[in-house]
């Protein structure tokens, strides 16, 4: 398809869905530093869309530089949801996200606009599109034992424990994410079933909404280059000062919002674990590893097409429009007609 054709095709498919009354949602996903935000904004501008962020760090107020939030003046008038929705001190779970994102999608559709989920937190995306199970209640004795093991042998040991019983969960949980590792083991030991098995039995809070999405993919060397440029820019903009201010205000470095990539390494730097140059290099390496895990995660998700190239490119925009239009048309064609009911 030519650029004008892809735009028209997606506009036609979106219009047909609006006329059908069937709820739907578009998604732009992919690894870190692939230009998801740029592509999401371009699609929103062309197709009267609003963006629902799918980022586990962007939900927190007060951490801006390391989360790479799109500044207000760069959003080009496109409305964004689920950015800066909870204080930096608050915990926010995938279940919270699924609930809030589903509400945002429904409100966007009610306004006659197109909901476009944009981000790279695969677990949040799965919680929204495939649901989460309620899970067993907290078992403080078990949690204490698991935290003691982590204290004695390191969180990487918990990660190996999870990998032995639930490889898919181990693939998505970072080796140093003690909170989620403890929860995965708590669920397994409490129920005899893994998180992955429980997730397979759940339903999406979106109900019958049709989901059409694309995943951006660029070569690994390019991801490394883009990550390095972004991290240098974050340090130049004052990442260390941002984190220093949070710690000086009494905010604990162990809080959930500071356990993600970039912020965890910045906290360690300020506590003297390594110098700034080594911290910068570590952030780059960890982000490249994270990008690989994101790709593995999204390959397991349904209803996604893969688009080669960065989200800032016209070619990626055209390819995304063509893929999304194809998904929506296929979904419409598979719907039962009134005469068949």
Describe the structure in your own words:
With 341 residues, the chain is of the alpha/beta class. Helices cover 55% and strands 10% of the residues. The protein has 14 helices and 6 strands. Strands 3-2-4-1-5-6 form a 6-stranded parallel sheet, sandwiched between helices. Helix 3 (94-110) crosses helix 4 and helix 11 packs across helix 12 (263-270). It is globular and about 60 Å long. The mean pLDDT is 92.
Considering the chains and any ligands shown, give keywords for the structure.
341 residues, 2 domains, Rossmann fold, 55% helix, alpha/beta, six-stranded parallel sheet, Histone, subunit A
Mean pLDDT metric: 92
Low-pLDDT regions: none
Helix content: 40-55%
Spatial order of strands in the largest sheet: 3-2-4-1-5-6
Give the class-level CATH name of the largest domain: Alpha Beta
What oligomeric state best describes the polypeptide chains here? single chain
Which class of secondary structure composition applies to the elements? alpha/beta
- Alpha carbon gyration radius: 21 Å
**Count of individual domains:** 2
> Any idea what the shape is?
globular
CATH fold topology of the largest domain: Rossmann fold
Topology overview:
Layout: H1 3-20, E1 24-29, H2 36-47, E2 49-54, E3 80-81, H3 94-110, E4 114-119, H4 122-130, H5 140-153, H6 155-165, H7 167-172, H8 178-191, H9 195-199, E5 210-217, H10 220-237, H11 239-248, H12 263-270, H13 276-298, E6 304-308, H14 314-334
Parallel strand pairs: 1-4, 1-5, 2-3, 2-4, 5-6
Helix pairs in contact: 1-14, 3-4, 5-6, 5-8, 6-8, 10-13, 11-12, 12-13
């Amino acid at each position: 398809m030519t650029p004008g054709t892809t735009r028209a095709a997606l506009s036609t498919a979106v219009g047909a869905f609006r006329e059908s009354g069937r709820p739907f949602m578009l998604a732009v996903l992919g690894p870190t530093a692939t230009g998801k935000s740029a592509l999401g904004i371009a699609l929103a501008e062309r197709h009267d869309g609003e963006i629902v962020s799918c980022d586990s760090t962007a939900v927190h107020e007060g951490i801006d530089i390391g989360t790479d939030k799109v500044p207000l003046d760069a959003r080009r008038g496109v409305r964004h949801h689920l950015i800066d929705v909870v204080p930096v001190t608050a915990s926010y779970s995938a279940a919270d996200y699924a609930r809030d994102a589903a509400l945002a999608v429904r409100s966007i559709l009610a306004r006659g606009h197109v909901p476009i989920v944009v981000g790279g937190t695969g677990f949040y995306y799965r919680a929204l599109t495939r649901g989460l199970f309620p899970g067993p209640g907290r078992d403080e004795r078990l949690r204490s034992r698991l935290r003691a093991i982590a204290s004695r042998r390191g969180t990487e040991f918990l990660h190996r424990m999870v990998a032995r019983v639930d490889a898919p969960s181990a693939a998505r949980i970072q080796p140093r994410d003690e909170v989620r590792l403890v929860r995965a083991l708590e669920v397994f030991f409490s129920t005899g079933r893994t998180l992955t098995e429980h997730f397979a039995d759940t339903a999406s809070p979106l109900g019958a909404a049709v989901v059409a999405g694309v995943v951006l993919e660029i070569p690994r060397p390019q991801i490394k280059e883009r990550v390095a440029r972004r991290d240098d820019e974050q340090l130049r903009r004052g990442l260390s000062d941002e984190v220093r201010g949070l710690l000086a205000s009494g905010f604990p470095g162990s809080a959930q919002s500071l356990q993600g990539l970039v912020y965890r390494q910045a906290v360690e730097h300020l506590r003297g674990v390594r110098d700034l140059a080594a911290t910068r290099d570590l952030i780059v390496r960890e982000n490249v590893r994270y990008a690989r895990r994101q790709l593995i995660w999204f390959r397991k998700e349904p209803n996604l097409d893969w688009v080669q190239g960065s989200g800032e490119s016209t070619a990626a925009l055209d390819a995304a429009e063509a893929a999304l239009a194809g998904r929506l048309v296929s979904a419409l064609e598979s719907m039962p007609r009134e005469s068949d009911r």
